[in-house]
What does this fold into?
Amino acid sequence: MAAWHRTRRADGALRGGGLVLWGIAYAAITHLYAEHPSPVSPGATALALAAIGFLGASIGSALVMLGRHVFDEVEVSSRWRMRSTATPPGGIDRD
It folds into this structure.
């Protein structure tokens, strides 16, 4: 598999995608606030707009800040690596 995400072009595209997600999040939150100024009993539409706003802002922030480094590999401690033992952790065999 080619390392497409290592290029400057991909970095710009990922950061641009993050900005687009910020825009979508801003539009969703603005629409939510305009339609429901008080949190009395939110319906499905209000909850969907809140979810879109939250996810768009969160993922957009990660993409804008990290860009192509989103795909960087990290070292995992041996404590959290997969074990290839016959019995699961805790010593209980469920066979």
